[in-house]
Amino acid sequence: MDNLNTVFWILMTISAIGVIAFVATLATWGTQFFAANRPVRKERRESIPAYYGRLATSH
Questions:
Q1: CA–CA separation, 31 and 37 (whole Å)
Q2: Which residues does 37 contact at the CB level (< 8 Å), separation at least 6?
Q3: Does the structure show a pLDDT above 90 at 13?
């Protein structure tokens, strides 16, 4: 039973590190993506749903 507990904690630690790494990667990718796309949104005629639709289909 002690071995099962050890395996459980190893899995929890790996998954926690994976989630933190995934969130950090997503945050850096998001900031780079929005920094690259910020100069594009100068035209005010484009509606917000069209902008987010283009943002969703672009990646």
A1: 10
A2: 55
A3: yes
Contact 25, 7 (CB under 8 A): no
Q: What is the pTM of this model?
A: 0.44
Query: Structural domain boundaries of the chain?
Result: 2-58
Residues 28-45 have a mean pLDDT of 70
7: three-class secondary structure by DSSP: helix
CB-based contacts of 55: which residues, under 8 Å, 6+ apart? 37
From CA 34, how far away is CA 41, in angstroms rounded? 10
